[in-house]
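User: I'll paste a sequence; please echo it back and then give the predicted structure.

Assistant: Echoing your sequence first, then the prediction.
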Amino acid sequence: MTSRVSYSIVVPTMGRPSLRTLLDALLGPLGGEDAPAPEAIVIVDDRPRPGAPLPLPPSVDGTGDLVRVIRSGGRGPAAARNAGWRTTATEWVVFLDDDVVPSPGWARDLAADLATTASEAGGCQGIVTVPLPASRAATDWERNTAGLESALWITADMAYRRDVLAECGGFDERFRRAYREDADLALRVMDNDHRLVRGTRRVTHPVRPAGFWASVKAQAGNADDVLMRRLHGRDWRERAGERSGRFPRHVATTAAGLLAGAALAAGAHRTALAAGAAWAGLTAEFAMARLPSFRSGAPEEFSGPCRTDLAEGLGGRLPALGRLGALWAGEVAKMLVTSVVIPPAAVLYRLRGLAEHRGAGPWPPRQVVLFDRDDTLIRDVPYNGDPTTVEPMPGAAEALERLRRQGVRIGVVSNQSGVAKGYITTDDVRRVNARVEELVGPIDVWEICPHDRDDDCDCRKPLPALVERAAGRLGVLPSDCVVIGDIGGDVEAAVAAGARGILVPTGRTRLEEIAAASEVAPDLNSAVDLVLGDNRKRERVPAERGVR
């Protein structure tokens, strides 16, 4: 009998139809009645803006709080997974891609994997299978996808202990694509002396359809490779189980092409001819290496119903062509065209990465900014339970976006005594908070005190518990946090927790609160200047400004 385990599942999604197939499987009998069910399935909608309803199965409506849908604002899969796991409270968090299909015994095997994982192990990877066509050779895109079968620590099916995620700060949100963010986390987990192990559970990862230019767009990952080297050193590929890339050859191909063009423009025809020949040779070699028939010497693997009449007519003189058919011809055209474009695209993305990540430091950034909600991020409406009345404070969206661009994580710590008074419900608070995120962007963590002044709780500001809890959920110390609010209680809560407090006065801020605050800023963007170090001089606002 497998011992019981506590786990949640987090699935980032852009709304692909495959999400429904995954949820149907997760909500079905995966492993039998004795297999432990997840305590939560968190679907993270990472579309930049709300769109069509997610393809959720009808059975979700009957799951109560089991399946939750949250939004992460289109910041990429790393940020989406962080948003998901931070809403959980289980010992383990299992990350799945929205296009995998768990095996019939997945839940049972997952429970066995997690129950038998030694306490010093921080994570456990499932087995991924990529089905390829049996009647023909795989295309370039299919072979690339098949590489997931041997990849280490990929989040197609990867479980981490929640405390390990908090210790490491979760996924590095500077990785905006589904590329390298899982390898980066794995290296940081192992650097913190946690082992990663392989389990026995299985998922199938079908090959998604890909457009003509998919392999060119994939070159954006060269910028992420720059960040990996900045963070983990020259040997990061070996440590992450990655094979050497083709980038040196892409540099040589691009250089030869540029030299040929420059020489031709200068009238140096002999040099242009030599450089052009080198470019053509390198490009042709690259294209041939990507074609399965040239690699295997078996073009007949593409034979099938796609044969063309013209090819059959030429079959006597060109027998191989008659067997390749339309699929082969299309793949040849794609490889020839994209093999010309890929080398310069790879170089340009690498240069972009060098510029973007030149000063990259370790993740997570140790600084977190926690905002008060009412009269700091949004205008105060007493005991507000109506999302339609939410109005951002001037500059709020801009100030928060500046912090996000610098990798600073954002939270809200707010007293909501209207819940205790019976004027609003916790559901009302959640709906208002959701509207806040629609207007000012995603918030990494919310901490709310629903108690009244006489309830003898430890979380109502100016007490420190809200700040302490928010810091704990983000894996930082309270001393790594800055609290920005509009009244003295916000600053006092920061001081009580050992955090830094910045006061942004409004009409309800008292003179003595302004005088007592160690840092005062006239508006949110000025407070962000102080946080980011753009303005080292502490600003003091006149006592009469914004004070009734």
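The longest helix spans residues 319-356. DSSP finds 21 helices and 13 strands in the chain.
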